[in-house]
Amino acid sequence: MTPRLTPDELRTLFLFESLDDDQLAHLSAEGRVEERAAGTAVYSEGEPATCFFVLLDGTIAMSRRIHGDDVEITRTEQRGVYGGATQAYVGDKIDQVYMNSLRAITEARFFVLPAETMAACVRDWFPMAMHLLEGLFIGMRASLTIVGERERLLALGSLSAGLTHELNNPAAAAVRATAALRERVTGMRHKLAMIADGRLDGRRLHDLVELQEDAVKRAASAAPLSPLETSDAEDAIADWLDERDITGAWDLAPMLVAGGVDVEWLGQIAGAVGEENLEPAVRWLCYTIDTELLMGEIDDAVTRISGLVGAAKQYSQLDRAPHQTVDVHDLLKATLTMMQAKIPRGVRLVKEFDRSLPPIPAYAAELNQVWTNLIDNAIGAMNGDGTLTIRTSREDERLVVEIGDTGGGIPADIRPRIFEPFFTTKPVGEGTGLGLDISYRIVVNKHHGDIRVDSEPGDTRFRVYLPLNEPG
């Protein structure tokens, strides 16, 4: 015969002490007493939640599985504590599985109710409480979904604004350079017509073309000069042009210096075309140098735009499989590029990447969201002045990404709550309190990793641990 508890014995458990006689009699008839030997599992996380357990005597330990390790949450011998199918009253609105694992440390006895019985009792005996609990549970999940989507939209808007700002600069530079290039090409055509109108024989024209090719090479490989060196070089070229009565010497000199031209090279022009044709030849070569410099500006601008677009694609991962093998450094670089406009001038960025780390299996776009949240929090903590450090390393069979800042730190009394949904230290309206909660769920639940924080004034470090290999 199955051991049972009498209604009077059930009334001694704090969970049932306020029930009436009929309710206690119903639980006595539906429930049973079960024993577990020391060291055995009562139930395991992830299994179908079929029973509700109330401890009668013995010592038990509750644990959660984190990146493959069972982490003990609590250990107790308090009579009447309960676990198991604690969300059975919600029904099929959620997956009814055990949310943790329970293990008997010593020999233990339990009062056990089937999940269906427990759910029916809550719904029938406490209808108002049932509606409140269901509303709280379902409402909280809906709020998390809605506010999480809002959080993503706000982050997307901020990143879009930053990306637009970053794209605008090289795009505007390309437009300006293109307009100037059109003017220079027009000027080159006019000067070429003046040079080639018969005043130069074939040999001199050939020499001038060779000088033009040399000017292009000099402009492409011109070494950068210090401000003082630039000023001295411009003075020397301007004086040389003035001595030969070439008008606008002070306008031509900066262009020639930027193209790597010196007085010695200019002397070759006079020998090639003669003093009488010196000015149009010099101006034609100036147009050549300026044209080459402008094309270099356009090339730099277009390369910058291409790089930003590439970073945006890497960040969003829109054209790639959600789960893939990725180099975490590519993800970090893409995130930093997208967030460049948000990093104040007073914040110094330090990157310490261990390039020997192998690619890892991951949901790349979601990890980018983790980096965005952590970097954004670090920037906000420093109030525009400090050092942002991003470091990668290896610890056993896990890859570690550390994001540190030199802000004021996280007070010890609120540190245990920072991963709670809706908890925020920002003023009302400035934070949803979901950034770290979303990051935690992405890292721990989706990647079977871990996220930890160490903080003191001037040194706060968030560490993200990701498995190097796909968990079994």
Structure description:
The protein is of the alpha+beta class. It has three domains: 7-125, Jelly Rolls (Sandwich), CATH 2.60.120; 163-308, no CATH class; 320-467, Heat Shock Protein 90. It is built from twelve helices and 15 strands. The chain has helices at residues 7-11, 21-30, 115-125, 127-195, 202-220, 227-243, 249-258, 263-273, 278-316, 328-338, 364-382, 435-446, and strands at residues 32-36, 41-43, 51-57, 60-66, 69-76, 82-84, 101-104, 108-114, 323-326, 347-352, 360-363, 386-395, 398-405, 450-456, 459-467. A five-stranded mixed beta sheet has the order 10-12-13-15-14. A four-stranded antiparallel beta sheet has the order 1-8-3-6. The longest helix has 69 residues, at 127-195.
Low-confidence stretches: 427-432
Helix-strand topology string:
HHEEEEEEEEHHHHHHHEHEEHEEHEE
Count of helix runs:
12
CATH superfamily of the largest domain: Histidine kinase-like ATPase, C-terminal domain
Helix percentage range: 40-55%
Output the radius of gyration. Answer: 37 Å
What is the number of independent domains? 3
Approximate strand percentage: 15-25%
The biggest beta sheet, please? Answer: 5 strands, mixed
Q: Tell me, briefly, the overall form.
A: rod-shaped
DSSP E strands, number: 15
Q: How is the largest sheet built, in terms of strand order? A: 10-12-13-15-14
CATH topology of the largest domain: Heat Shock Protein 90
* CATH domain class of the largest domain: Alpha Beta
Secondary-structure class: alpha+beta
Determine the N-to-C terminus distance: 42 Å
